[in-house]
């Protein structure tokens, strides 16, 4: 990872955003929703996601569940950014609120030997969960581990100031939450929202995990756990950050050239 190069890309991206009349903050939020949900199986295209969230037009011939996933994720993202912008620190209940928003229309009440819980309300799981070859910690350990993570983030988020330390904290929190896997469903989306919350707290661009890199993303998570080396996951996430900056710089440069040659601006994905 070339940190100086990444910072240079970030500055170029922010400069282009400042000079552009298009609402790139909103566009990027739509993109985050699209990629994050696609990783979890949503079939909505970028265009369908944008139109759904911008114009409230439901895509045809797509599962209704995928429409709900997009709407709920967008509301959860806005909530996370609002928390960050108001400089509100995390709590266990706040994390559950984010989960409840992500799973509002696709979660359900679940009966388990240890008791009933509701994924649509942000309850912690009371069952054993597996993802691929990974089996996650016993559900009885979740409350303590989540409290430790929340306390750690609240302490560090007030200390980190530079690009690298902010993004390291965001990536580490992402990894830790998805590794705890506290919820029955939605853990990946919630962990990526936690990462975005930390970035937004410090007014930094939000990192996207691209759907086409899903396999590498999962492998980075597995390798980091097996080798107990967080640098593996950080390296992958910095590569995603670089990809995001390069993609947006290209898009912004193209649209600004177009706008200088015509009166109206037509923006397409």
Automatic annotation (TrEMBL):
UniProt domain Fido: residue ranges: 90-239
UniProt KW ATP-binding keyword: yes
One Pfam match: Fic
Binding site for ATP: 185-192, 217-218
Keyword annotations from UniProtKB, A to Z: ATP-binding, Nucleotide-binding
Active site feature: 181
Any one GO molecular-function label of the UniProt entry: ATP binding
Site, Important for autoinhibition of adenylyltransferase activity: residue positions: 40
Presence of keyword Cytoplasm: no
PANTHER family xrefs: FIDO DOMAIN-CONTAINING PROTEIN (PTHR13504:SF38), FIDO DOMAIN-CONTAINING PROTEIN DDB_G0283145 (PTHR13504)
Protein name stated in the entry: Fic family protein
Source organism per UniProt: Polaribacter cellanae
């Amino acid at each position: 990872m070339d940190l100086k190069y990444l910072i240079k890309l970030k500055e170029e991206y922010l400069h282009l955003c400042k000079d552009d009349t298009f609402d790139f903050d909103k566009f990027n939020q739509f993109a985050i929703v699209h990629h994050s949900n696609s990783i979890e199986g949503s079939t909505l295209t970028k265009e369908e996601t944008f139109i759904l969230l911008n114009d409230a037009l439901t895509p045809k011939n797509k599962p209704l569940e995928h429409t709900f996933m997009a709407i709920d994720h967008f509301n959860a993202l806005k909530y996370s950014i609002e928390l960050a912008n108001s400089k509100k620190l995390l709590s266990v209940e706040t994390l559950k609120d984010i989960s409840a928003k992500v799973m509002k229309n696709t979660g359900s009440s679940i009966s388990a030997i240890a008791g009933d819980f509701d994924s649509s309300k942000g309850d912690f799981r009371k069952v054993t969960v597996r993802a691929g070859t990974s089996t996650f910690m016993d559900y009885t350990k979740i409350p303590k581990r989540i409290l430790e993570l929340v306390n750690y983030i609240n302490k560090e988020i007030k200390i980190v100031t530079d690009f690298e330390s902010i993004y390291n904290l965001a990536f580490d929190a992402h990894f830790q939450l998805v590794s705890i896997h506290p919820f029955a469903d939605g853990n990946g989306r919630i962990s990526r929202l936690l990462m975005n919350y930390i970035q937004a707290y410090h007014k930094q661009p939000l990192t996207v995990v691209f759907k086409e890199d899903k396999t590498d993303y999962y492998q980075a998570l597995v390798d980091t756990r097996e080798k107990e080396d967080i640098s593996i996951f950080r390296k992958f996430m910095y590569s995603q950050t670089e990809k995001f900056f390069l993609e947006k710089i290209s898009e912004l440069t193209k649209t600004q050239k177009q706008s200088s040659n015509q009166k109206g601006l037509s923006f397409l994905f």
